[in-house]
Structures are given as C-alpha cells and as structure tokens.
Amino acid sequence: MPTPHDHKEQRQALEERIEDLAKELSELINASGAKGREELRDYAISLLQGGTETSSREAGVPPTQSSSPFNPFALAIPLLLVGLFLLLLFPPIGLLLILGAVVMMIWGGVLALFVKNR
Questions:
Q1: Is the pLDDT of residue 64 over 80?
Q2: What is the pLDDT of residue 105?
Q3: Is there a contact between 78 and 69 (Cβ–Cβ < 8 Å)?
Q4: Which residues contact 87 (CB under 8 A, 6 or more apart)?
Q5: Lowest-pLDDT range, 23-27, 55-59, 77-81?
Q6: Pick from 31, 25, 60: which is nearest to 43 by CA?
Q7: CA distances from 115 to 8, 74, 110, 118 (A)
Q8: CA-CA distance, 96 to 86, in Å (whole number)?
Q9: pTM of the predicted structure, to 2 decimals
Q10: Are 94 and 83 in contact (CB under 8 A)?
Q11: Residue (of 72, 66, 76, 65) closest to 110 by Cα position
Q12: Which helix (H) or strand (E) covers residue 109, if one does?
C-alpha cells in the first residue's frame, strides 16, 4: 500500500525528470541559431500544450451539449437596419427586409423562450 511518503518521492522524481527534459529542450532550441529559435520555441510550447490538455471526460466532468450556434434574432437586427435604410431608397425591398427581420425576431424569441437550454 503506497504511503504519502512514496507519493511525495514519486512526485519529486517526476519534477526532476521534467526539469531535465526542459533543460535538454532549451539547449536544442538555443543550438538552432538565432533565426529559427523563436519558431522552435513556439512549436515546442504548442506541442507541450497539445500533449497535456485533458478532455472533459478525463477530468470527470460530463460533457455539455451546446445549443444551436444560430439564433435568428441575432441576424434580424442588422437585417432590420438595412431594411430601414433601403426603405428610403427602394421602398418595396426595404419593406420586404423589414418584414423578414420581424419574422426572424419572432422566430428567435420563440426559440429563446421555449427551447430548453442544454
């Protein structure tokens, strides 16, 4: 049965190994020359970040379902503004855009009220 002392020794050994690897990596990057040093450093950081990310399932957190990324209400606002502008220049087209914006606003409002947030 592992004791807390064993866990502490194992963690210390891991930390020493990580420090050794970091020193080796920095020596390799510094040996590359001044031109490619910045790119190699960024590449090493991105590899490290990508390799150490944990997914929500690994962390024990249930994955959340995202709601639809499209809400017609958001599109209706600029459509309404363009419709108001075009109402002055081309009244039939402006009226049609305003009507479409109103329909989309109603649709977005109904979605926001009745569709359950996931």
A1: no
A2: 93
A3: no
A4: 94, 95, 98
A5: 55-59
A6: 25
A7: 50, 16, 8, 9
A8: 10
A9: 0.42
A10: yes
A11: 72
A12: helix 91-114
